[in-house]
Amino acid sequence: MWAGALLACGGLWWAKRRLRKQGAVVVLTFHRLLDEDDYGQCTSLRSIVMRRRTFESLVSYVARRYEAVDLLEAFAAPSSGRLRIAFTFDDGWRDAWRACVPLAERWGIPCTFFVCPGLTGQQWPFWPEKVIAARRAAGVSGDDPSTEAVIEQMKRQSPEEIEEWLREYWGSGQPGEGQGPANASWRELRDMGEARMRLGCHSATHQILTNVPVDLARSEVAGGRRQVEEASGRPCEVFSYPNGDWNPAVRELVGEAGYRFAFTTRQGAWTEESDRLTIPRMNACESHVGFWRGSFSPILFDYAFLWKAWRAMAAQPERAAAGAE
Ligand SMILES: [Zn+2]
Questions:
Q1: Which pairing describes strands 295-296 and 32-34: parallel, antiparallel, or unpaired?
Q2: Model confidence over 133-173: pLDDT tens digits?
Q3: Residue (of 101, 123, 91, 90) closest to 188 by Cα position
Q4: How far apart are CA 60 and CA 54, in angstroms?
Q5: Quick one: 1 exposed, middle or buried, by C-beta within 10 A (0-12, 13-18, 19+)?
Q6: pLDDT more than 70, % of the chain
Q7: Which CATH number fits domain 15-125+181-315: 3.40.250.10, 3.40.1190.10, 2.40.50.320, 3.20.20.370?
Q8: pTM for the whole structure
Q9: How close is the Cα of 36 to the center of ligand 1, in Å?
Q10: Using CA atoms, how far apart are residues 297 and 97, in angstroms rounded to an integer?
Q11: Average pLDDT score over the chain
Q12: What are the DSSP calls for 80-125, one per residue?
C-alpha cells in the first residue's frame, strides 16, 4: 500500500507538471452540497452529493494551491503559472447555491451554475430523487446497489414512460411531498453578493437530448438559453449537456443556439485544442475526496481529479467532434 502511495505521489507530480505545461484547465462538476443531517437522509445518488464541510476544505485547498478560473476567461488572461481549475455545478440545486455563494465570495473563486430555467424554484425538480424516495418508502435503502441500476435503466426511457412510472409510484400522498430537495429560485439566483457566479444553461427541463425528437431538443437548448438570459438579465454563453449525453446532431443544436462553450461528463482536461462544444469535466462527489465524515484529503483530490484527468487526456488525444460519449 505504501509503495503504491509513493508511486502515486511521483505520478501525481508528473501529471500535474504535464497539465500545467499544456496550459490545461481541469473543470470540476459538482451537484449538491449537504449538511451532515441532510447527507445521511439524502434522496440523491451518492455520485452527485458532497458534504458542505468537505467542499469548504476543498475550496480553501484549491484557492491556496491552484488558480481558479472563470470558464469564459480560462485562456484569456496569462496564467499565473499555477495549474488552472474551474468550478461548475449542474442542475441548480438550492443547497449548492446557498453553500457555494459565500465561499466563492470569501475565496474569490469564480463558479458557474448550469441551471434548468424550467425547473428553478421547484421542489423535487428531478425524477431520480422521487424514485429513490419511493423505493425507500417501500423499504429499499437509498444506498442499495440496485438503485443506481434502476435509475440508469430509466434514463433510457422516453419522458412519457417516466411520467407513467411517476403517476403510478409517486402519487400526491408520497412521504416528503411539500418538502424535500429543491432547486434555487430566480430570486435566489439573482442574489450573489460580490461572488463571481456565472449562470449557464443545463437545458430547459433536463431532457436527455439524445433521447428526444429534434424539435424538443432545439427548444431545450435554444429556448433554455433565452429563458436564462431573460430571467437573469445577463448573457448565457455556456451549456452543459444533461447527463453528459450528446451526439453530432445535438452538438450542432448547441452551436446554432450561439453558446461559446459546452461541457460533457467525459473525463479529461480542457486545452485550447479541445473541441469547444464537447469539453471534458471531472465529476466531484464525497467519495472522491472525503475519507471520514467530511475530512477532506488533498492527496485524494489530486489523485481523483488531476491524475485521472491527465490519464484520460493522455489515453484519448483530442477527438474531433465525431460521436457520442
Ligand atoms: Zn444534470
A1: unpaired
A2: 888 888 887 778 888 888 999 988 888 898 888 888 886 55
A3: 101
A4: 10
A5: exposed
A6: 91
A7: 3.20.20.370
A8: 0.93
A9: 23
A10: 23
A11: 90
A12: -SSPEEEEEEEETBHHHHHHHHHHHHHHT--EEEEE-TTSTT-BS-
- Read off the pLDDT of residues 189-248 as tens digits, 9 standing for 90 and up: 999 989 999 999 999 999 999 999 999 999 999 999 999 999 999 999 999 999 999 999
Surrounding ion ligand 1 within 5 Å at CB are 90-91, 242
The pLDDT value recorded for residue 2 is 47
Separation of 218 CA from ligand 1 center, angstroms?
17
- Straight-line distance from the first to the last Cα atom of the chain, in angstroms, rounded to the nearest whole number: 33
The H-or-E segment that residue 128 falls in is helix 127-137
| pLDDT in the model for residue 76 | 82
Distance (angstroms) between ligand 1 centre and the Cα of 253 equals: 18
Instruction: Tell me the CA–centroid distance for residue 30 and ligand 1, in Å.
Output: 10
The structural domains of the chain, with segments of one domain joined by +, span 15-125+181-315, 126-180
216 CA to centre of ligand 1 in angstroms: 17
Give the position of cell 470569501: 106
pLDDT tens per residue, range 91-110:
999 999 999 999 999 999 99
Helix (H, G, I), strand (E, B) or coil at 222: helix
pLDDT at 325 over 60: no
Q: How far is the CA of 321 from the centre of ligand 1 (A)?
A: 21
Q: How close is the Cα of 287 to the center of ligand 1, in Å?
A: 19
What is the per-residue DSSP string for 143-175? Answer: T-HHHHHHHHHHHTS-HHHHHHHHHHHS-TTST
Residue with the larger pLDDT of the pair 14 and 263:
263
Mean pLDDT of 69-74: 95
Q: How many angstroms does the Cα of residue 239 sit away from the middle of ligand 1?
A: 11
Cβ-in-10-Å burial (0-12, 13-18, 19+) of 103 comes to buried
